[in-house]
Design goal:
alpha/beta; binds 5-S-methyl-1-O-phosphono-5-thio-D-ribulose; Four Helix Bundle (Hemerythrin (Met), subunit A)
């Protein structure tokens, strides 16, 4: 069971977001009072992680429509939705959740319908993570060493996480195992968030720098890798935090299974492969940090792991080969 604080709360029709920029030093919530504040929170990674962005956007979009008159409802909803979607381009959950609300709102034109739909997306996410945990649990055997990257944990979703769900499941079942966590430069989601939330839950964790993964694999100290994802395209390509591709290449070299946890909200059937997915580029300052040099910086936030490097995808319906994700999810 996760011990991490809730990523977001919807109370009395108001949205509160855990400020993930301040973790692990401070647990503080921001009251998101308008659409601009929601856009800013998503853009600045106050709330981050593909499913959490989708849930937050759904609540924020619903909230923005509370006092809109019926004559302007459809037009305002469409404009607010496009604005929110522009906050971050790569995780498909943002567009998925917002478009879902737009469809309902255009048909029914009521704030209550939108807020109920946002609550449903939130509740469904919790159930999906639990199911991913059950399906992925068998991959983690007693004494195994698992490696993960970035944060696809409780903080990135509503509960249990996606990549971490099999870990929480096995920990609750009393199975002893150990997790290497990549620190995940430049924003340290692995060090600040994953290592923190797993350790809080009592899971045996070792933090490594991103450039140490090859060493621990070459020493035979990694039995499997499990990561989350921001988007899986129709052919099974996996878009996730920058550095995921490095791990997949290493796994291929060292014959280590490479698994991706993907809820159905992260599957993008309408994009053929990873080559056309927009990869967010972020500010140079994130990479420069305390370094004095003002040389140019390239800071892509995500990379594309080709389908051929993925051992399997863990979904809420079971584990499948990456190329078969469409039939796994669309047959439901
Ligand atoms: O930039 P971030 O912190 O939003 O990136 C998050 C990731 O890349 C996660 O691995 C992904 O969103 C899956 S979260 C279940």
């Amino acid at each position: 069971m996760t011990a991490a604080p809730e990523t977001l709360r919807w109370e009395d029709d108001e949205l509160y977001l855990l400020d993930q920029r301040r973790l692990p030093h401070e647990v503080a919530y921001l009251h998101i009072k308008d659409l601009a504040a929601a856009w800013e929170a998503i853009h600045t990674l106050t709330v981050r992680g593909a499913p959490a962005i989708g849930i937050a956007a759904a609540y924020a979009l619903a909230r923005s429509m509370r006092d809109v008159e019926s004559g302007n409802f459809g037009e305002t909803l469409a404009a607010n939705a496009e604005y929110l979607k522009s906050a971050r381009p790569t995780a498909v959950n943002l567009a998925w959740a917002v478009d879902k609300l737009v469809g309902l709102g255009q048909a029914q034109g009521q704030y209550e319908v939108l807020s109920a739909a946002a609550c449903e997306i939130h509740a469904a996410d919790t159930a999906i993570c639990t199911a991913i945990g059950k399906h992925g649990a068998a991959l983690i055997q007693e004494g195994n060493n698992v490696l993960t990257h970035c944060n696809a944990g409780s903080l990135a979703v509503s509960r249990h996480g996606t990549a971490t769900a099999p870990m929480y499941h096995q920990h609750d079942a009393g199975v002893p195992f150990h997790v290497f966590v990549d620190e995940t430069r430049p924003l340290y989601q692995g060090a600040r968030l994953t290592a923190w939330e797993l350790a809080q839950a009592g899971i045996d964790v070792t933090l490594i720098c991103d450039n140490m993964a090859a060493t621990v694999m070459s020493q035979g100290r990694v039995d499997l890798v499990i990561v989350g994802t921001d988007r899986v395209t129709a052919n099974g390509d996996v878009i996730n935090k920058i550095g995921t591709l490095n791990l997949a290449v290493l796994c291929n070299h060292y014959d280590v299974p490479f698994y991706v946890a993907c809820p159905s909200s992260t599957y993008d059937a309408s994009t053929a492969d990873g080559s056309s997915v927009p990869i967010e580029e972020r500010s140079a300052e994130e990479v420069r940090q305390t370094h004095a040099a003002s040389v140019p910086v390239f800071n892509p936030a995500f990379d594309v792991t080709p389908v051929g490097l993925v051992t399997g995808i863990i979904t809420e319906h079971g584990i499948c080969e990456a190329a078969a994700i469409g039939s796994m999810l669309q047959s439901r």
